[in-house]
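Quick one before lunch.
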Amino acid sequence: MATIALEQARRGRVMSVVVDAAVLAERNLIALVRIREALFFSSVQPIMFVLLFRYVFGGAIAVPGRSYVDFLMPGIFVQTVAFGAVGTAIGLAEDLQKGLVERFRSLPMRRSALLAGRTAADLVRNVLVLFLMTVVGFLVGFRVHTNAPAFLAGIGILLIFAYALSWGFSIIGLSAPNSETAQMMSFPVLFPLTFASSAFVPVASMPGWLQVFARNQPISIVVDAVRSLMNGGPTADSVIKALIWSAALLIILPPLAAHRYRRAL
Amino acid sequence: MAIAIRAEKLVKEYKGGVRALDGLGLEVEAGTVFGLLGPNGSGKTTTVRILTTVAAPDSGEASVLGFDVVREPQEVRARIGLAGQFAAVDENLSGLENLRMIGQLNQLTRGSAKLRANQLLEVFELTGAAKRSVKTYSGGMRRRLDLAAALVNSPPVLFLDEPTTGLDPYSRQALWQVIEELVAGGTTVLLTTQYLEEADRLAKMIAVIDSGRMIAQGTPTQLKAGLGASVVELEMKSATDAHQVGEAIRLRGTTSIRVQDNKVEIPLEGGPSQLRWLFDLMGEVGCEPHAFSLREPSLDDVFLSLTGHQAE
Ligand SMILES: Nc1ncnc2c1ncn2[C@@H]1O[C@H](COP(=O)(O)OP(=O)(O)OP(=O)(O)O)[C@@H](O)[C@H]1O
Ligand SMILES: [Mg+2]
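Model of the magnesium ion complex:
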């Protein structure tokens, strides 16, 4: 083999985490575009949920003081980022199963970069998906009743919460023996959280015992915050609660995920 | 003699109580190929995983180029390449993207990583498929891409876990040539294999391991000498003939033969001239063989004679 002059990049510790994570995030984003199922789960499926609730169930659901589509879209936004996080669990389980994690561990890269890269790619995906869902929402009659800054603040809360979820689901992915199991482990967490919530129906329509859970779990709290920012109404209380939940998850979940990653092989 | 890889009293027990390594030690001379041979489950992959810092040993010590695999893993990682037993490549990326990513994670700049990727694709004859998603690659192509990935950082020490399993004879030869070139350039290679022929062709030293312990070590010639003779396989016209020939040979003092159905296996302990004796003998008892073949002692024979049990 002929020798060619190769340039080794000289970077400090922090910079190398950032660069390594960016390289791995790029890899995950390339995969997102190339894998049909990934594209389906992050775009076609949420669109189907919008159509389903807007035109099939929506007529039967009474929401006080606003149109159902305005009520629905914040719920759809949260559901979309939450379901998208399952991809993180599946992807990491696959990396482990296929021996990629093993290869990464033999490279002189920063260990934290794999999870940092994966979750960063999720963040980029969520920006794109939320943009797409906003457009779809507008097409089916959704309107923002506040103003642009409030709407963007809502998107911001969604992204922070989704970022925390990515870390949570990466723990599932690192604990599963294969990608199918990762998917199976994700849904029992996801279904009660998204459907026993304020995302699609008013909590007041649920039986009393369920209301206690539905009112206080994080998905409902984030839905309520986003809804208040996009539909109008009192915002401070729900927004603060949503931020506290996200911050708490971001303090707890990444170290747990890192711990799981160290012990994954 | 400079030592590139050193391991001492390595012990590794997996969850569930499997003792994969049980006090394994080895030393690999710099600039040579070291062959690690062993039946399935003997601990070859576990050894490679510890030496490449992927897994930590329960006890014992190991170092690569003087750097401790547990205490100085980053130093070790900067100097090694690993091609694991199963191709670890990203199916969703193209071959070029895979190698560029590995290059960047080896701290090369993006431009350099791409340059190196293209060079390696050429060496492993993957240039035509460089931009195709790895999903569309055949098993052998994946394997070659995986090997290319192990060479991205031009590592002075290379670990290859069964590198030619699943390659066709042509690709196997080509890989052997690549390994020989690398070693000529000073690279140290530790390779595991199931094929005696492969270790024989490439390795300066061979270690045979079983149940996580070393059971034999030596140059290929030494090991084969210990194994003894080539084996003659005779296929007789009938089982009765085979039995009769077997008895005749035993009567003349050669007892280590195997008779099964119409086949007789005789180790040529007396060297090639024993063949004439054998044919004369068959003439005397009036049983001509139907078919005849001569084979070198196989890895099965090595395992059988060293471990006392057949490779699983
Ligand atoms: N992750 C694991 N968890 C539990 N047991 C394991 C694990 N990996 C390997 N083992 C066990 O450890 C022993 C040694 O395995 P290892 O993979 O090192 O063998 P090997 O020599 O590479 O085998 P092969 O030729 O089949 O590749 C085997 O008994 C195997 O079942
Ligand atoms: Mg193995």
